[in-house]
Design brief:
Blueprint (H helix, E strand, L loop, with lengths): L10 H15 L2 H21 L8 H6 L8 H10 L5 H19 L9 H9 L2 H4 L12 H20 L14
Helix pairs in contact: 1-2, 2-4, 2-5, 2-8, 4-5, 5-6, 5-8, 6-8
Amino acid sequence: MHRIRQTPVPEYVRRHWRIIDEIERQTDRGAAIIGAAYLEERLTEAIRSRFVPGNNIETDLLGFSGAVGTFSAKIDLAFLLGLIGPQAYRDLHLIRRIRNDFAHVMEPLTFAAPKVANRCRELYLPTHLLMPGQNVLPQEPRAQYLAAVMLLFNLIWGEMYKKKAPAEPAVNTP
């Protein structure tokens, strides 16, 4: 009899599913804000993966008050570095705008609100790509937003490991 050896699930995968579970259990406002924050964190990691290791410049550059400290600037830089394509670029900016709608409007707000729902319908990825295990594209704005977060996470995660940063800074370069 052959035993099937189970490979332990890496911590980063367990963390990902804990965060997705947390996002899904949130109110609309919480889901929008946490989903965008999670993507911003992944985008920051992906950008760092292209930097020369062993320096402190990246902390200053990517920190909140740094030159590339905002979610918007990180999206732009990720596009310029080739980490994301034009559709992901557009979707990330839509997610940023949706996050801002929820973060900066004090009145009750849901994904069903016309402004938010329209932005969710504009998202390209969840209206053109099926999530693993799905056979129907999401129709509701919240489901479209959550699908976009998961699809973009996977896309960014995959791009992080395609190319690596230079091992060290260029020498004899002014």
